[in-house]
Amino acid sequence: MESKKEKTFKFVVVGGGIAGVTCVEQLSSQFASEDVALITAGPHIKAVTNYKQVSRRLEEFDVEEKPSNVLEEKYSNLTIIHSAVKSLRTHTHCVETADGRVFGYEKLCICSGARPKLLTQENPHVLGIRDTDSAQEFQKRLSKAKRIVVVGNGGIALELVYEVRRCEVIWAVKDKAIGNTFFDAGAAQFLIPSLEGDKEQAAAPCKRQRFTTEEPAPDAAQTFTADEYSRGQNPDPVESGSALGPDWHRGIELQGAEQASRRVSVEYQCEVEHIFTSEEFLDSSKQTPKPDSGSWPVYVQLTNGETFGCDFVVSATGVVPNTEPFLHGNNFLLADDGGLQVDDHMMTSEPDVYAAGDVCSACWEHSPLWQQMRLWTQARQMGWYAGRCMAADILSEPIDLDFCFELFSHVTKFFNYKVVLLGKFNAQGLGSNHELLVRCTKGQEYVKVVLSGGRMVGAVLIGETDLEETFENLILNQMDLTAYGEELLNPDIDIEDYFD
Ligand code: FAD
Question: Any coiled-coil ranges, and where (predicted)?
């Protein structure tokens, strides 16, 4: 492969999602006279726009899907290569792309993201949602559907169940409460009434990003149809586009073929036992369909003994890092979640190879107030920090772990409520060594504070609470709050003034 090298770049970044684009922007601007390459499978790149620092640690930004030449126009030293990386040879420092070209690198950063962990790969009735193509396929199938089964309890399932209209939704969650990845049972109780309300009102204004669903440029390489993708039949599963992010459903009608506006039933503490085609279901004498079950293209048997017929199943049970093309012949250490292990300089276990975003697993000793979650904000932060680490390495300069990894912070929207998550918001890893303070006003706000040893270590803020900045400071300061007790959440006290 060495002898075929078309060109050697100082820096090569793989992946045109938020992590890769942020990393390549950092490198292209800092090393304006060096050759930088971005190799990406999809025709578009993801660009961060309208970046806003909401508080010391909380950030908000829009994300736009753009044609990649926008980046090349901005950085004259940047070359964009539209092809998927097929293999990597770390000992000779080169990558081979699906179109047979070989490129050398001095430093490489892998930002190839992750793909949905599908319940089953081969079933045309099971969809995953990851990118614009798969979201469009979902919309198309939904428009003819009367009932769908959604499996999973993370952010995608939460948003989907809330947004779908005119189609019955059976929502299977493995936990005792909805949204377990983000909330505790109390917050789930606060949100549940939103699912019961009729969602016919006009959508509330939304300031976050929209996704273009324009056709790829005619010269764009390496695309596959949404149908192929949804059936897991794309020629190479890693050649997917970038992951969607917040508000992925904006601009696409998520409407089924039923009359009733919203009908959601939650099946708690269960997983999928088996998925049957309608023939298998009818043939199986063991199955006893409910009298009203009708005839459906697919049937889902849950571990709680219930079986539901539906038009299709949405598998929203997490993601698998896209590591496959990089592993063969190399010695990457992988984490339990399948991600490339990276240290506190975003370096993998292979020399000169870095990784950032959904593909990597942060394996340094974390700050007691931070944890990795495969989120938009962390993809940006990791991409940016990886670029700085690669630069520091080239320049032989020392670099400290960025302060964004000191405190977990995430701002998003669920069920149309603003949601802010800080630190160990779900008392992650604290065992019984913590206490909770909760304030809740039905339909308005839910505030939860996690205290450990009298110090605030985490918080969940749902609604327009205006508490994020003060709580962020209290968490970062680690001030002993024992003396304040429950007064901390007294709605009659202006807490901001209190701690000024
Ligand atoms: P990606 O955005 O997945 O980009 C990976 C890039 O690598 C793509 O350009 C792909 O084409 C390219 N690629 C892959 N393999 C190869 C290869 N072999 N060779 C070359 N290129 C390759 N996060 C939030 O913070 N808030 C949310 O509300 C939220 N909602 C979401 C909703 C949905 C439906 C989904 C799917 C995700 C959501 N996320 C959300 C998660 C968020 O989108 C991801 O964490 C983030 O996009 C990860 O960015 P990334 O750059 O690591 O990977």
Answer: none
**Residue 458 pairs with which residues in a beta bridge?**
423, 450
| Interval 104-114 mean pLDDT | 97
Q: For the domain bounded by 117-198+241-318, which CATH number is listed? A: 3.50.50.60
Ligand 1 midpoint to CA 370 (Å): 21
CA of 478 to the centre of ligand 1 (A): 34
Around ligand 1, the residues with Cβ closer than 6 Å are: 14-20, 39-42, 46, 84-85, 111-113, 129-130, 155-156, 238, 240-246, 248, 322, 325, 357-358, 374-377, 379, 412
What is the ipTM score, two decimals? 0.98
Alpha helix (H) residue ranges in 231-295? 278-283
From CA 442, how far away is CA 6, in angstroms rounded? 63
The phi, psi pair for 463, rounded to 5°, reads 100, -175
Domain range 7-113+322-401, CATH class: alpha beta
Pick the CATH number of 416-498 from 3.30.390.50, 3.30.390.30, 3.30.70.120, 3.10.20.310: 3.30.390.30
Tell me the pLDDT tens digit for each residue of 160-203.
898 898 899 999 999 988 988 888 888 888 988 888 765 544 33
Contact 383, 357 (CB under 8 A): yes
Q: Is 23 helix (H, G, I), strand (E, B) or coil?
A: helix
> Within 10 Å of residue 225's Cβ, how many Cβ atoms?
12
